[in-house]
């Protein structure tokens, strides 16, 4: 049951409305002056305060100010006399949720109460969702258990606090988007929006309008004015994913936004000013593109003031058991899933062209496939076990005995020839060298008769 503090020096009015509110399932306490009201407010918890403005000694505005000093969440509704709307507006500016004008009836009062309660609920939900979103993008929700990743995260955390433009580099699936989000949600702009544009996923001719907006008639199909992503991100952050795919003309426009925070909508000459932080990412070698003349030098240098490079998974295989644990928890839901040590050792030997995304997909799949609550070798996709088998069958065992490169070559050639039943042309094809090179190597290594 919601509890209401009803404050009015008109004793009769208090009595009538208290009665009506009680009939509608509210608990009501009344007070007839400011001092009495604040005493009540200190003594117990209220959900809603309804206060008159005009009262002897302490008026409603002062009551409101006093309440708001200690409590931001209680709903406050102001009762104002007909014709003194200015007072009511002033009260709303000071933190009242709404006002109601005298004279009013029961229905009106209930309506205002309902409305403010609904509004408060939405606000609370919104704050909660934002909080959840932020928690989700905390750096500590990301597995980083290798020296390389820890260095990378330290750098990202530092840069998050600043206003600097960030360029995130890394192969596909290494977590570029995850890091971009973490940077935004740990930055001073965290309460503003993070707007993401995946450059290659927007058709080339529409990307400019997507980024900068357009005015009606700018091109066929532009039937009304439209805001671009840079305007939507005003005050916040824009994440430009796969920036390496941005065409020349847009590169120039982007450079201008970075330098002057200014651009025009397509088909318009009026400059628009925004305050946007840019985070860009690419899995391409941007420096290479620059050297090939496909990416502007000036934009490259502007973007790469603070480059953050995420290492590929194969360079941090010590993290694989931690990542597996993390994803098993995520996809196992309430089930506790065990992972065979054999599986972990297979996963650590694989080279992960799709990086963490590939590992995540694999665990998700395995968690679904396992019926025993245990992920075994049988739950792994064939290409991974195949690669492992190749490694295991190989005669090369460097770690235990140590071995010369020449010996390695000998063994590999020998093994290939065994596989092809001595067919040298076929063996040369498998070793990806011309036949005459194989013959030469055989001679050199003293293996002619094999
Ligand atoms: N260190 C990590 N800890 C936990 N999850 C991770 C980590 N790195 C990546 N992931 C997960 O892997 C998946 C791929 O990450 P993300 O989309 O950020 O990669 P990306 O580098 O942007 O890839 P692409 O270049 O393909 O767009 C996501 O589901 C992400 O949550
Ligand atoms: Mg991505």
How would you state the average pLDDT, rounded?
Answer: 90
* Helical proportion, percent range: 40-55%
Overall SS class: alpha/beta
Radius of gyration: 34 Å
Described by strand count, sense and barrel closure, the largest sheet is: 5 strands, parallel
Can you give a write-up of this model?
By secondary structure, the chain is α/β, with parallel strands linked by helices. Helices cover 50% and strands 14% of the residues. A five-stranded parallel β-sheet has the order 2-1-3-4-5, sandwiched between helices. α3 links the parallel β3 (48-52) and β4 (75-80). The longest helix has 31 residues, at 106-136. The radius of gyration is 34 Å and the shape is elongated. It starts with a strand and ends in a 6-residue tail after the last helix. The model has no long low-confidence stretch (mean pLDDT 90). It binds adenosine-5'-triphosphate and magnesium ion (MG). Adenosine-5'-triphosphate (ATP) binds next to α7 and α15. Magnesium ion (MG) binds at residues 176-177, 241.
């Amino acid at each position: 049951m919601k509890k209401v503090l009803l404050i009015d020096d008109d004793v009769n009015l208090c009595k009538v409305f208290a009665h009506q509110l009680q009939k509608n399932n509210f608990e009501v306490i009344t007070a007839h002056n400011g001092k009495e009201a604040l005493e009540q407010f200190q003594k117990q918890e209220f959900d809603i305060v309804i206060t008159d403005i005009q009262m002897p000694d302490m008026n409603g505005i002062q009551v409101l100010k006093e309440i708001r000093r200690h409590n931001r969440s209680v709903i406050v509704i102001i009762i104002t006399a007909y014709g003194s709307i200015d007072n009511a507006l002033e009260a709303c500016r000071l933190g009242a949720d709404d006002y109601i004008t005298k004279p009013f009836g029961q229905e009106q009062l209930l309506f205002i109460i309902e409305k403010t309660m609904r509004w408060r609920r939405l606000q609370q939900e919104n704050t909660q969702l934002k909080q959840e979103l932020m928690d989700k993008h905390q750096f500590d929700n990301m597995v980083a258990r290798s020296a390389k990743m820890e260095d990378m995260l330290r750098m990202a955390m530092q840069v998050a606090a600043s206003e600097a433009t960030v360029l995130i580099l890394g192969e596909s699936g290494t977590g570029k988007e995850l890091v971009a989000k973490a940077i935004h949600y740990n930055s001073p702009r965290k309460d503003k929006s993070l707007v993401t544009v995946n450059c290659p996923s927007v058709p080339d001719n529409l990307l400019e309008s997507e980024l900068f907006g357009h005015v009606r008639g700018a091109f066929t199909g532009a039937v009304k004015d439209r805001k671009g992503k840079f305007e939507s991100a005003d005050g916040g952050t824009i994440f430009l994913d796969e920036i390496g795919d941005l065409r020349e003309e847009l590169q120039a426009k982007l450079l201008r936004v970075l330098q002057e925070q200014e651009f025009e909508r397509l088909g318009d000459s009026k400059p628009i000013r925004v305050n946007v932080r840019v985070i860009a990412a690419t899995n391409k070698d941007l420096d290479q593109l620059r050297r090939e003349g496909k990416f502007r030098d000036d934009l490259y240098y502007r973007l790469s003031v603070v480059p953050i490079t995420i290492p590929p998974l194969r360079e941090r295989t010590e993290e694989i058991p931690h990542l597996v644990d993390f994803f098993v928890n995520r996809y196992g839901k309430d089930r506790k899933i065990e992972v065979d040590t054999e599986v972990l050792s297979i996963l650590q030997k694989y080279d992960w062209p799709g990086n963490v995304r590939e590992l995540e997909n694999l665990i998700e799949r395995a968690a679904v496939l396992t019926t025993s609550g245990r992920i075994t070798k049988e739950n792994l996709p064939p290409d991974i076990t195949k690669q492992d088998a190749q490694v295991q069958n190989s005669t090369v065992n460097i770690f235990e005995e140590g071995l010369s490169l020449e010996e390695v070559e000998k063994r590999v050639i020998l093994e290939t020839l065994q596989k092809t039943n001595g067919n040298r042309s076929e063996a040369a094809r498998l070793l990806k060298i011309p036949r005459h090179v194989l013959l030469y190597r055989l001679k050199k290594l003293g293996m002619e008769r094999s």
